[in-house]
Specification:
By secondary structure, this protein is mainly β. The protein has a single domain (about 35-405), classed as Beta Barrel (Porin). Helix content is about 5%, strand content about 55%. It is built from two helices and 20 strands. It has helices at about 1-15, 200; strands spanning about 35-50, 80-85, 90-95, 105-115, 120-135, 135-140, 165-175, 180-190, 205-210, 215-225, 230-245, 250-270, 275-285, 300, 305, 310-320, 325-335, 350-360, 370-380, 385-405. A 16-stranded antiparallel β-barrel has the order 1-3-4-5-6-7-8-10-11-12-13-16-17-18-19-20. The termini are far apart.
Length: about 400
């Protein structure tokens, strides 16, 4: 019943607030389609004073810091890496049409940061791909639950561990109310990461637990903007579905748990917009897949029953432009998940992320930039074990910004 209510609420919001007229027609306008091209070649020269899982050296992820000798990446300290992985290419096509919804937009975006089966490789990765027509967006875009505008002004690819950050496949509806308010609703691709805890230690052949995509995540977001900055509030409701497969009984049984989360973000400007704060707090049960780094959605209790643990995260950064050529950024972030008795002692518990950076815009149009930053991260596990990593990174960045190509 809950699943049906979530889906029908979204459909009612979209159709009820923006009825489409049956007599509308879609024809090409006199204007020509055009294409915007944006490219960035980015080289990071990284030196880790301690250790990081080498598959993730292109981004500073405290959850990937090895704590025990058997963890990936364990070895000697003081490693130097050269990474091109956050080099990015974007293409945006616009086709003018004679319709009250306006032009049709298509966007494709790639970077070189291998993930999943390609983790650790420098390879093409589709980051965004969507079509947009008026208030409707279909495809893969930054999740409606996150606030990309609150990402601090620095060059670390991964960013603060405690912020919500995810690109997701979705259907989204947006509506502007007045000049300062915006409402958005989306159905996004579901999914959950499961920690089986001690179940497989007891009998590895008995149980197999796997995530199941069953009901889309429902996300609502409100934004208010002004000369002072903006405040954005997003709420999410989701069903975390999974299958339990018994090899002895020869059958599988599906289960579902309810998850929810809120994300409150803000950019606050100071000194005639030369300085600004990036602030964020996110909390809830079962949102780890939307979190930038660390945590799982489903964990086992002492009786090995599945539960959805509580998690929270926060970000506080300050950025300042001293001139057209020089800027600095510094701040702190953390995320923490409440562990459950059925998890192993080495389960993720908490991480800290600290960064300070200066950026030199060598050219006025930011076509060539260089940056130097220092990072500190620490990972804590359920049993209290912890480890740190300290990183120095020098970045050189070349950008080609929005080359307009009429067709």
């Amino acid at each position: 019943m809950i699943r049906r209510t979530l889906v029908f609420s979204f459909l009612f919001l979209c159709l009820g607030t923006f009825p489409l007229a049956a007599q509308d027609t879609l024809t090409r306008s006199a204007g020509k389609p055009w294409l915007n091209v944006w490219g960035m070649v980015n080289l990071d020269i990284i030196h880790d004073l301690d250790q990081m899982d080498p598959q993730w050296i292109g981004g500073f992820r405290p959850s990937k810091i090895p704590v025990h000798p058997g963890d990936p990446g364990w070895g000697s300290s003081h490693n130097t890496w050269f990474s091109l992985r956050q080099s990015t290419f974007k293409f945006e096509g616009v086709m003018p049409v004679q319709h009250r919804l306006g032009p049709i937009r298509l966007r494709f975006e790639f970077d070189l940061f291998g993930m999943g089966v390609n983790a650790g490789e420098t390879t093409f990765r589709l980051r965004l791909a969507y079509g947009q027509w008026g208030p409707f967006l279909v495809g893969k875009d930054w999740s409606t639950f996150i606030d990309l505008e609150s990402f601090p002004n620095h060059f670390d690819f991964w960013g603060p561990s405690g912020m919500a950050l995810l690109a997701s496949v979705m259907v989204r509806y947006s509506r502007t109310v007045g000049e300062a308010n915006r409402l958005e609703a989306a159905l996004e691709l579901p999914g959950s990461e499961i920690d089986p805890g001690q179940l497989r230690q007891i009998d590895p052949a008995f149980l197999n637990i796997q995530s199941k995509e069953q009901v889309p995540d429902l996300i609502l977001r409100y934004t208010r903007k002004g000369a002072w900055g903006h405040v954005r509030v997003a709420g999410m409701a989701r069903m975390l579905s999974y299958d339990v497969i018994s090899q002895q009984a020869g059958k599988s049984v599906d289960h579902a748990l309810f998850g929810w989360a809120f994300n409150v973000t803000s950019n606050l400007y100071l000194f005639d917009r030369q300085g600004w704060f990036n602030l964020q707090t996110v909390f809830g049960h079962g949102y780890a897949g939307y979190n930038n780094d660390g945590g799982v959605e489903i964990t086992p209790t002492a009786g090995f029953r599945a539960t959805v643990p509580f998690q929270y995260g926060m970000v506080a950064f300050y950025n300042h432009n001293f001139s057209r050529h020089w800027s600095v950024s510094a701040g702190y972030s953390e995320t923490s998940q409440h562990n459950t008795p059925g998890q192993l002692d080495n389960a993720f518990h908490r991480s800290q992320y600290i960064l300070a950076q200066t950026i030199w815009n060598i050219l006025d149009n930011k076509a060539v930039q260089a940056g130097l930053c220092g990072m500190y991260g620490k990972k804590y596990e359920k049993d209290g074990s912890s480890a740190r990593d300290r990183r120095i990174m020098f970045t050189v960045r070349f950008q080609m910004d929005h080359i307009h190509k009429p067709r």
